Amino acid sequence: MTIEEKTKAYKIKVNKLIKEIEEILNSHLSKSKQSDKITARLREEYIFAKNSYIKKFNNASLVTIDPYSENVKPELEEGDIEGTEDDEYSKIHANSFGPFNPVEYFKKGNFRILWILKEPYVKNGEYEALIAGLREFLGWHDQGYEYYRAGWKTINYGEERNPTIANLIKISKVILGKQGEIFNENDEGKNIELVMNHICIIEVNHFPGLALKGTDSDNGLLKDWLEINNALINLLIEFYKSNIYITNREILSLYVEGYDIDYDKITAVDIINFMTSKPFEITSSKNGYPSAKIFGKKIKPYFNEGNISINEKRNTKYGPVAIYDILNKLWVGWYHTSARNEMSDINIQYIGSWINELIKNQNRKIKPLRV
Prior knowledge:
Strand content: 5-15%
Number of strands: 14
Helix content: 40-55%
Largest sheet: 9 strands, mixed
């Protein structure tokens, strides 16, 4: 199967998925029930990877599956066999996310926070279970439900702790506290549940990366997956309307496109880093930040550390960046959410407070949610 044939096959599958999601959205079901059906349908998506390809990730630091590898296929072809031998293929289902608690997330007037992450993971134990015949395929995890059920264990308990999810919950808690949410200092579990009720998560690539050794994603391959899934992600973002969209700077740069041709030597990552390191007056000047788009919508630089005032100070060399598009969606980029040094308690307090200032200072630009 050539790259052109694979691209066409992926697009056919994504377009079919989008059509079925649109049918769900046109139903008379409540938004929370629609969300349940959408995430269930998303988990039905799959790809195949040859076992010899999967096993190479035992010695690989980057986990992202290459959609155009000769050993990865959207569908098996004649002569291909699904099985556990090296020259056979394993089926990898998509994982789903969405709101931790759809019923609470869609409550009228609820303050919503949408996070965009890179990709889920398959770890050694899951693949070993597949090879041992204890699983029929990889993936198919309802992450929103699983993490919500784990609750406080997601934050600080053994194997169930996920540093990315833990940090985004902690940052969201700071934002919600600044927005007036009341927390009980003596009930951490209840507080985490309350914060989760306000959060929705979307992933650039829903097929889990093969984290058999490391957990770092390949941003180049994520760009390939974004091109495949762009219309799908845009549809999900529109459905899960939020007050604010938060991601890390690497993902934010994946969405930036269409900057001036005068900036032919600049990349999307350069734009995000430029906005991070330069004062607002420079980035917003005619000779500063180039014109660019997210999902075809023009964007402009937003507030940065130099022109908003908060009490907290960040203890990191990596600054935040934020932009808004012409539809007044607020997009915030930060260093990678799971990075331990960058996500210290000091920096978590800083970014949460910083985002709150963005919301407060630009409140007139943010339109009310339409439910």
